[in-house]
Automatic annotation (TrEMBL), chains A, B:
It comes from Desulfohalobium retbaense (strain ATCC 49708 / DSM 5692 / JCM 16813 / HR100). This is Homoserine dehydrogenase. One of its GO terms (biological process) is methionine biosynthetic process. Residues 352-427 form the ACT domain. Belongs to the homoserine dehydrogenase family.
Length: 430, 430
């Protein structure tokens, strides 16, 4: 069977690029059966021509260090951006689109920060700018939101979007190890970068959440407006306490439609152990969403890695190779309106509190009195006799309360003389 | 904003048709923002014009009892088949395709039995014949296999595809109730049909599995070649026994690629309680698959119901309304080859056995001797002192064994004088 060849120009040949090349070699005939065309990597942009490559991208691939050479090559049908960073890939994608080439990218940071400009350009050029690999690795959440669930209004979307953070929390939960050891283990296993800050501080999940908000709601939620709390320094005591009460702690990225205003953020939260998201362990990712027609849907899989992410890049390449009309944002507008943002202070959740206090009479009633004045009512309370941080821990599980009230109460409580350390508090997913 | 109208002709206006109409009313503006077009139900084929409809399909909808009138209406852009049955919808879909109209159907039985003819016709006509709603309700598994994971070879696909059976097993597990009571409860809750045979005997799951095999493997696995075992008469003792050993029993539909030959079937099986499929309870469906690039992926959601199924029908309608090139089977061939089927006897699984025997010396050693001769080795064994069926139950969990050996051993064992009732056996998912 003779096949047309769709020619790919790759920018970057690291983990994901190598993964893509391996899949194209292993599954090339299979892809041709699906597509009626073969896919070939013909040119690769790299920083260093002399570096050895463990897996060559293809028999006829040439390497270049010139971005111009890649985007100007008339042979190349699709440009695949796998460079990382912001400025260089931004320039590359702009140039490629201006030259009339559709683009596939896995770059969540770039799209979160400068997506609107690039989507507007792609729209003017009537070209595809696809990004399945930018959220949750091989899980087809971008396609699902653009196509399969496009007729649904998404009431709530809750994601476990960072595999490193999830691995750390899973290990701490399973073994009782502390945060530093769990992070070290994640690094040993290759899940965490040498500089893990983006992962554990929640920014990586925030980038992905920005993209998902755009896809689910057709609104641009500026990254710098998104409240982001990571898991750095998560204490084993809180994980154990959560377990005792039947909860797991996960780093969540969530957006809720609250009467047309979006309540969104990245934060660690307690989840009941029989909740399906509580079962998402180790480096896995999952997105649970609730559509007003489809009801609850969850997609689960590996959020990172050469082959899973390569699989998502390949899905986009195949979609573009089919030359269907581009569907980049999932909406017909050239640019999406800025999100109607619910002030984070108005966010309502149940909360977990750990106070560290001197063990003396009247402490509990003072704290619960202050909380009561702020309309925070206590569902469960427990005092542990294990001295910690110069005091003993007192844990409260609250009923639903507004974040503003929680912050006001804590600022008052943390100023009391018998409080020995800043209060730890996490949300509880309901 | 002025919008084109895409006109839908519905055949059948039962649960799913009503669900679709409700979604179109509720989400009409939202859909127009996604699509640049409005969707309207303009004609509905019904059996009885005089029947009252709880929810009208649209302000300008006309009803007809004539299939010809529906497919000949030049105004109708897309025909949506929601009739049920085989012969009448087959004729309808044929006529619609012959008249040049793309078709959306939720009819798994029809596509399992006569899909190849209809897909060949759609291919000749270059028309879409879409069927997201035919498998697992609102879960976008059809689109995912056709598009997002199309570049993957699927090594194993395991589905919980029948919500009624899953609800029954979940109730039996949670409450210890017996099969008949759980079935009655499923009927009371509206999950089970008045005649639940298709659900509990496994045929409904088998229909869906045929469709998934086609999508994942590009091969036609004839329905009548598929080994199907349902859950009728499932005994609470076995569910409890499975629980004692850390397992749940689920009705599974599974296909595995074993060196190019497909091992497929529908069967109840024991699943370790910490396996993600073991958490799929009640009327929910899930599909877990393992692609050679993406690794394990699971999609989870409601497998039935008016709105979830309507959501899937709507996804297909929106895909067709975008007028993209049709992609029906996910492969470019006009017709798919017949599957390379692995003989069911060669299927290898771990097994659960419950023997009902007279409580006398030598029984265990005789049974395990016969199993040993057939290369079935025992991982765990337990004898309960609760008389049952004229004997006492003896439970074995085996290591992996070939189905042929299991059947040969059971036929010998069930002929022994001390065996009081036919041996119950289920597979164990590994």
């Amino acid at each position: 069977m003779a096949h047309d060849m769709v020619k790919l120009g790759l920018a970057g040949y690291g983990t994901v690029g190598t993964g893509l090349a391996r899949i194209l070699e292993e599954n090339g005939d299979w892809i041709a059966r699906r597509l009626g065309k073969r896919l070939g990597i013909t040119k690769v942009l790299v920083r260093n021509l002399d570096k050895g490559r463990a897996f060559p991208p293809g028999p006829k691939t040439t390497f270049t260090t010139s971005m111009e050479e890649l985007v100007n090559d008339p042979e190349i049908d699709i440009v695949v951006e796998l460079m990382g960073g912001i400025e260089a890939p931004y320039q590359l994608i702009r140039s490629a689109l201006e030259k009339g080439k559709p683009v596939v990218t896995a770059n969540k940071a770039l799209l979160a920060e400068r997506g609107p400009e690039l989507f507007a350009l792609a729209n003017r050029q009537e070209l595809g700018l696809y990004y399945e690999a930018s959220v949750a690795g091989g899980i087809p959440i971008v396609e699902t939101l653009k196509q399969s669930l496009a007729g649904n209004k998404i009431k709530t979307l809750t994601g476990i979007l960072n595999g490193t953070a999830n691995f750390i929390l899973s290990e701490m939960t399973a073994t009782g190890m502390d945060f530093t050891d769990a992070l070290g283990l994640a690094q040993d296993k290759g899940y965490a970068e040498a500089d893990p800050e983006l992962d554990i501080e929640g920014m990586d999940a925030a980038h992905k959440l920005c993209l998902l908000i755009r896809l689910a709601h057709g609104q641009d939620y500026p990254l710098h407006d998104l409240p982001v709390q990571g898991i750095t320094g998560m204490h084993p005591f809180d994980i154990e306490m959560a377990r005792d009460f039947g909860y797991r702690i996960k780093l969540l990225a969530q957006v809720k439609d609250r009467s047309g205003h979006l309540q969104a953020g990245v934060f660690p939260a307690l989840i009941k152990e029989d909740h399906i998201l509580a079962k998402v362990d180790g480096p896995y990712n999952a997105i649970l969403l609730d559509g007003n027609a489809v009801g609850p849907i969850m997609l689960y899989g590996q959020g990172a890695g050469d082959l899973p992410t390569g699989s998502a890049v390949l899905a986009d390449i195949m979609a573009l190779a089919r030359k269907t009309a581009p569907n980049n944002t999932g909406f017909i507008e050239e640019s999406l309106p800025k999100a109607q943002i619910l002030a984070p202070e108005q966010t309502v959740f149940r909360h977990y509190f750990r106070f560290t206090v001197k063990d003396r009479p009247g402490v509990l009633s003072t704290i619960s009195g202050i909380m009561g004045e702020r309309n925070i009512s206590i569902a469960q309370a427990v005092q542990k006799q294990e001295p910690q941080g110069g005091g003993v821990p007192v844990v409260f599980f609250s009923h639903a309360a507004q974040l503003k009230d929680v912050r006001d109460a804590l600022s008052e409580i943390d100023g009391l003389s018998f409080v020995c350390a800043p209060t730890v508090h996490y949300r509880i997913l309901s």
